Amino acid sequence: MENNKAKIIKKFQKGISLKKYTTFLIGGPARYFYLAKTKADFIEAIKSAKELQLPFFILGGGSNLLVSDKGFLGLVIKTLFLKFSIQRDKIYAESGIPLSLIVQKVKGKKLGNLGHLAGIPGTLGGAIYGNAGTKKLSMKNIIERVEVFDLKGNKLKIFRNKDCHFTYRESIFKKKKNLIILSAVLKLKKEKSNKIEKDFKKHLNYRKNTQPLNLPSAGSIFKSYQGKILKKNLLKEFPELKEFNKNKMIPAGYLIEKCNLKGKKSGGARISEKHANFIVNLGKAKAKDVVFLIKLIKNKVKKKFGIELETEIQFLGF
Ligand SMILES: Cc1cc2nc3c(=O)[nH]c(=O)nc-3n(C[C@H](O)[C@H](O)[C@H](O)COP(=O)(O)OP(=O)(O)OC[C@H]3O[C@@H](n4cnc5c(N)ncnc54)[C@H](O)[C@@H]3O)c2cc1C
Fold first, then answer.
1. Exposure string for 214-234, b = 16+ CB within 10 A, e = fewer
2. Most exposed: 44, 125, 167, 181, by fewest CB within 10 Å?
3. pLDDT, tens digit, 9 for 90 and up, residues 186-244
């Protein structure tokens, strides 16, 4: 048994810095690290971690993630299996494939409605996990089914769209850590090429104009607040709230900006001047700098608006 364990552990790299595997460019090392280049290798690595009672973490593109400065004392398994095929209006893709690659590949096939996803970094697995997207389109709208490895009983399962329990930046995979995403089938609409091109340009330009894409970040730190603000004094001071109340969705960036937090710095991290819901790494940011700013934002927004903001990003090693 001990021999077997040693054999398994030999497959893993040791002490790998996770910094370069995240878009934040922040974080300490993983005790063990494994690049899963095929679905079979991926499942083997997960089973091995279970057998060794080693905590493990599935890493996609690391674009929605803050890794602690001390790193992670377990096994990080990075998804690098990338099989992909298109048949008429359906796409089969493995979970390690970058979302941007899918979006690019279908663009030329007159398959539309993916413009909203253009410019979202990360992998298909990460996107399904967090039901990534925009206000108008998220994975919920295009996923037909997901192939899952269930750690409970080590079984392969198929989840239909409704089994995934997609809601705003949520899915069953966020709630049940025993469910690991292996691949998915996406169903798209036929669309005219010129409409697709226009749609892409519009969304990419919007991102360029509103997001600090020149500096490392993890995208939106907080989810929008899903609810209304009804306090009379606040409605008077911030009339835009009436409009947001209609959709029961108040952008976190708006709330943060109204607390005058844009540009606030801690160490090497800063609340973006361009988009208040982005924290950017100015070069040498530590996870503790980001955590400080997250706490500051939560406290100020709670004090001013009575709202408990919920983080959208995931945390590893805290
Ligand atoms: C500049 C910028 C803009 C962004 N814009 C948007 C946007 O418009 N909309 C949006 O929704 N998000 C946005 N994001 C956030 C991020 O890109 C998405 O959340 C993305 O889908 C995360 O995918 P990932 O592969 O990087 O996941 P990671 O960050 O690697 O992981 C996120 C979580 O998913 C889990 N996970 C990953 N793969 C699997 C798997 N195969 N099985 C089970 N769990 C898995 C991880 O364990 C982790 O808990 C943006 C980020 C940046 C940096």
1. ebbbbbbbbbbbeebbeeeee
2. 167
3. 999 888 888 888 888 999 999 999 999 999 999 999 999 999 999 999 999 999 999 99
Is 207 part of a structural domain of the chain? no
User: Would 307 be classed as within a structural domain?
Assistant: yes
122 Cα–ligand 1 center, Å: 5
Contact 81, 96 (CB under 8 A): yes
Assigned domain for 243 exists: yes
**Would you please indicate which residues are annotated as catalytic (active-site) residues?**
169, 220, 312
Q: Based on the fold, state whether residues 64 and 92 are members of the same structural domain.
A: no
Please state the domain count of the chain: 3
96 CA: nearest ligand 1 atom: 41
Residues 57 and 107 in one domain: no
For residue 105, the SS3 value is helix
Q: Is 23 in the pocket of ligand 1 (CB under 6 A)?
A: yes
3 Cα to the center of ligand 1, angstroms: 37
Owning domain of residue 225: 215-316
How is residue 13 annotated by DSSP? E
Residue with CA nearest ligand 1 atom 34: 126
Q: Is the pLDDT of residue 2 over 80?
A: no
pLDDT-derived band at 112, boundaries 50, 70, 90: confident
Alpha carbon of 61 to ligand 1 centroid (Å): 7
Whether residue 222 has its Cβ less than 6 Å from ligand 1: no
Could you tell me if 258 and 304 are in contact, meaning their C-beta atoms sit under 8 angstroms apart? yes
- Tell me, using a 6 A CB cutoff, whether residue 123 lines ligand 1: yes
